[in-house]
Write a structure and sequence with these properties.
mainly beta; Antimicrobial Protein, Tachycitin, Chain A; 5 helices; 27 strands; elongated; disordered C terminus; binds 2-acetamido-2-deoxy-beta-D-glucopyranose; glycoprotein; Chitin_bind-dev_reg; Peritrophin-48-like; disulfide bond
Length: 383
């Protein structure tokens, strides 16, 4: 068995995201990566000129050009007559096509603006420290030039992704983003385990392909020692291996978790996972032991890989995943041998242990219904 998992781990290292088409980059803006964050069919802007856009498909971005006399308007995801789109990329003269007086943004400096008098630049300047130029309101507003996300590089994500749609992130499966009409980025995380790009709603990481876009987690970054391993703090079945400069994400085979003591993938039941990870992954049972090396008495309800709130067994009991109930502490010493989640746990005083023994199973059942109801809240998400 151990040999099988070792081999499986090695094979796992070789599995990557095979992309059908070449990666599209515009400087530090990774168009291919940003496309994985939006629903298929969404069009996103380019930054070299306003004449073209990309349609994000399941096999990557497909570039298309607007007809002569038309400019791509990323806000409406359509080509509009030149002059009607607020797009300034690649223009030698940002005032081209303008009539009257107007401030326009500087595409590579969010604090800077130009003042246009008809189609001529009549002035330029920068907003004071702590302010950025907001085209929609024609003013300097409080805020930093920080609406770039993993994948968008130096480019403000809200200047290429259309406003008013929820989209995902590539550094965390739970994170969602949203750009307002005026280009302000909102970022938050689902209560559940995943933001599903194809539905634009929060859901579960068990949904097919739900987290495929995630290329890196924000937690471990640089490292120096080749081969150093680190557990993923949230996903029991994932861990990082240092490639000499950065930590690369690796996944255990289905049904196996990363064992922090053995530093390899082992069967879920025997693995000693990192304390913060979700043991509902790859399990269809109702309740799971929380990682608990003290009393082994905390557990939570699992539904489609998502865990509900944590409950605790009465004094003198530990939670037995096989029995799906709190069990007498007398059996804990045997239980910890094959149940890595409770590795190191010890029973409390045996005098306390007898007191509540009659309540055991009923208690667990009641708590289970509550937990189930509570976990319903976590389903609604970004919508
Ligand atoms: C761009 O994104 C793709 C898809 O996430 C990734 O495979 C590729 O390594 C990225 N390229 C760069 C230069 O970041
Ligand atoms: C969650 O609660 C809502 C409203 O009470 C209900 O309509 C829905 O069916 C529930 N969903 C689940 C999965 O229990
Ligand atoms: C997420 O959970 C928090 C705390 O339980 C709650 O206040 C919030 O409304 C929830 N958000 C969603 C989108 O369900």
């Amino acid at each position: 068995m151990a040999g099988y998992y070792l081999l499986a781990t090695v094979l796992c290292l070789a599995v990557g995201n095979a992309l059908a088409t070449a990666v599209v980059l515009e400087g530090t803006y990774n168009v291919t990566q940003v496309c994985t964050m939006v629903k298929a069919g969404t069009r996103i802007g380019g930054t070299q000129s306003c004449d073209y856009f990309y349609t994000c498909t399941s096999s990557g971005p497909k570039k298309a050009t607007c007809a002569t006399g038309y400019t791509y308007n990323y806000k409406t995801q359509s080509c509009v007559p030149t002059g009607q789109a607020s797009c300034y990329y690649g223009l030698a003269n940002p005032c081209a096509g303008n009539t009257g007086n107007k401030w326009v943004p500087h595409v590579s400096n969010c604090q800077a603006w130009y003042w246009c008098n008809d189609d001529k630049i009549a002035g330029n300047g920068e907003c004071a420290d702590g302010l950025k130029f907001e085209s929609a309101t024609q003013r300097c507003v409080y805020g930093r030039c920080s609406s770039n996300v993993a994948g968008s590089g130096d480019v403000s994500i809200c200047s290429v992704v259309p406003p008013n749609v929820y989209f995902g992130a590539t550094d965390s499966c739970k994170t969602w983003n949203y750009c307002s009409d005026s280009g302000v980025l909102s970022t938050s995380a689902c209560n559940s385990s995943a933001f599903i790009v194809s539905t634009g709603e929060c859901g579960y990481s068990s949904y097919p392909g739900a987290c495929d876009r995630v290329t890196s987690d924000p937690v471990p970054t640089t490292c120096t020692t080749l081969g150093t391993k680190q557990a993923d703090p949230e996903v029991c079945g994932s861990y990082y291996v240092c490639d000499g400069s950065i930590f690369q994400l690796n996944k255990c085979p289905t049904g196996a978790y990363y064992d922090v003591a053995k530093e390899t993938c082992v069967l879920r039941q025997t693995a000693v996972p990192i304390a913060t990870c979700n043991r509902c992954q790859d399990t269809y049972i109702g309740f799971a032991n929380a990682v608990d090396d003290k009393l082994c008495n905390s557990y939570y309800y699992c539904e489609h890989g998502e865990h509900g709130s944590t409950s605790t067994c009465p004094t003198g009991k530990y939670f037995n995943e096989e029995l799906q109930a709190c069990d007498d502490d007398n059996d804990l010493a045997t239980y910890v041998i094959d149940n890595g989640a409770c590795s190191g746990a010890k029973a409390t005083d045996s005098s306390e242990a007898d007191e509540d023994s009659a309540e055991t199973k009923e208690d667990t059942k009641e708590e289970s219904t509550e937990t189930k109801e509570a976990s319903n809240d976590t389903k609604s998400g970004a919508k």
